[in-house]
Write a structure and sequence with these properties.
Layout (H helix, E strand, L loop, with lengths): L3 H12 L15 E4 L12 H11 L4 E6 H4 L9 H12 L4 E9 L2 E2 L13 H17 L5 E8 L1 H5 L3 H21 L4 E3 L1 E3 H5 L4 H8 L5 E5 L14 H11 L5 E6 L11 H17 L4 E6 L7 H11 L4 H8 L14 H12 L24 E3 L6 E5 L7 E7 L4 E8 L4 E4 L6 E9 L2 E9 L2
Parallel strand pairs: 1-10, 2-3, 3-5, 5-6, 7-8, 8-9, 9-10
Antiparallel strand pairs: 3-4, 11-12, 12-15, 13-14, 13-16, 16-17
Helix pairs in contact: 5-7, 7-9, 11-14
């Protein structure tokens, strides 16, 4: 990547758009999700295998999504097989759950068949959903619910109809009030696409319905209308946009992904850059963004893609490739890590979400002028940091920036092959180190823990 220092400085400048945040994300305050329910080809690598891979990688909340029509296939007849298993499984691993119940899922009405002619504000509709909640309460007494999400990407289905939004708002207010009698203190959200939240014509309707929500729920896939990818450089601006629109409520990215298919003008390396930038921008808004849930663990197989083609009523190959390659691991065999998954594990480790023993220099861009990156040890560091640039430095400048882009340390005229820096006066957090050596630049990221 040519002239990566300019990109680095631009990234730091983008971080300065936030004036209220100067810390990195932490497992205690910021939740990391990973949609692990897409297993690879080998049937022995089942959901349990995927779940444990997600957990060791840093996943500390799980999203459990069910359509209303799945739970109530016929009027008053419930199927709680998934709920019953979840009630045993997730408490076994002390895993909090974000429960998504979808009367609407993107462009599909997921109501029981006998309710499809009713408006959402009809008392029959509201009472039936409340009865569903009553039954879930009975079948899931052991699960710790972090939030209840009522509806998935509802803006796609509701469109620009003021009456449809008003009816659904009435439905959400009534059913969430009932949910809070069953689970006192549970946080309520509804999933709305990023564009639906911040762009007209649906943004005003989203703003209205979110006055009744505790969390601002969204899905984030930076795509053009033709499902080709936008550059990852849009992420800092997008994060600033959503935080500016909703500065006073926690924001949950219940879905966050980026395809790797060349049909989407993407690649494995771009998907990896997406992961890097998401974490960097999340650091900048750690006080605002509560959750980022990455979708999916594995790429999808042909049968699943054929199902989605029918479900969404689309044969657009770019759209289907977008869905197929959202995975952070491949599908074939046991699945293999894409660069994006290794990057996610490393970014999570640097922030304390996991303790994996791995080489975590993967997310650091390297200069085209020099192929010798900086080696930092220890990383995470406490009071001392050793820098080995693998070349002899000649009148080099060393600068350290914090996660808000502020220069916190500047050392000039270094003439040696190893540098030792006293970091005892730096607070805990993520830092960026830049070394200018003649015409060459090196950089790396490190973490201070106390």
């Amino acid at each position: 990547m040519k002239h990566y220092l300019l990109l680095f400085v631009a990234s730091l400048s983008a971080l300065l758009l936030s004036t209220s945040v100067n810390a990195q994300i932490t497992p205690a305050n910021n939740k990391l999700g990973l949609a692990v329910y897409t297993p690879p080809q080998n049937p022995a690598f089942d959901f349990d295998s995927c779940f444990h891979l997600g957990q060791v990688s840093g996943m500390n909340e799980y999203q459990f999504s069910l359509d209303w029509s799945t739970l109530e296939p016929t009027a008053g007849t419930f199927d709680f097989a998934y709920i019953d298993v979840a009630n045993y499984y997730f408490p076994l691993y002390n895993m909090p759950v974000n429960l998504v119940l979808a009367p609407i899922s993107t462009n599909v009405n997921e109501l029981p068949a006998d309710l499809t002619s009713y408006a959402f504000n009809d008392t029959v509709m509201i009472n039936r959903f409340n009865a569903l909640l009553d039954s879930i309460k009975i079948h899931a007494p052991a699960i710790t619910f972090s939030s209840l999400v009522i509806g998935n990407e509802i803006d796609v289905y509701l469109g620009n109809s003021a009456s449809a939004w008003a009816n659904y708002t009435t439905f959400l207010v009534a059913t969430s009030a009932h949910a809070q009698t069953l689970w006192p203190g549970i946080k309520i959200a509804c999933k709305i696409t990023f564009n639906g939240l911040v762009n007209n014509p649906t943004a005003p309707y989203a703003q209205q319905i979110n006055t009744y929500c505790d969390y601002i729920g969204t899905t984030y896939y930076p795509l053009n209308p033709d499902f080709t990818v936008k550059p990852v450089s849009v992420i800092p601006t997008d994060f600033d946009t959503i935080v500016s629109a909703y500065p006073n409520k926690p924001i949950c990215f219940y879905e966050c992904g980026y395809p790797s298919s060349t049909a989407c003008n993407s690649s494995d390396s771009l998907q990896k850059e997406f992961i890097t930038q998401i974490f960097t921008s999340w650091d900048a808004y750690s006080a605002n963004i509560r959750l980022v849930d990455f979708l999916w663990l594995h790429d999808l197989d042909t049968a699943t893609i054929n199902f989605f083609a029918l479900y969404y009523g689309s044969s657009d190959t770019v759209f289907l490739e977008y869905l197929r390659t959202l995975g952070l691991r491949t599908w074939g065999g046991n699945g293999t890590d894409k660069p994006a998954f290794t990057e996610l594990q490393c970014q999570a480790r640097q922030r304390g979400y996991n303790t994996l023993n791995m080489n975590c220099t993967t997310g650091i861009p390297e200069s085209t002028e020099s192929s010798t990156p900086l080696v930092l040890a220890p990383n995470p560091a406490q009071n001392d940091l050793s820098i080995q640039p693998s070349v002899i430095l000649n009148d080099a400048d060393v600068k350290i920036f914090n996660s808000s882009g502020q220069l916190v340390m500047n050392i000039t005229a270094i003439n040696q092959s190893e540098i030792h820096i006293n970091t005892s006066e730096l607070n805990s957090g993520v830092y960026f180190l830049v070394v200018k050596n003649g015409k060459d630049y090196f950089n790396n990221r490190f973490v201070i823990t106390r």
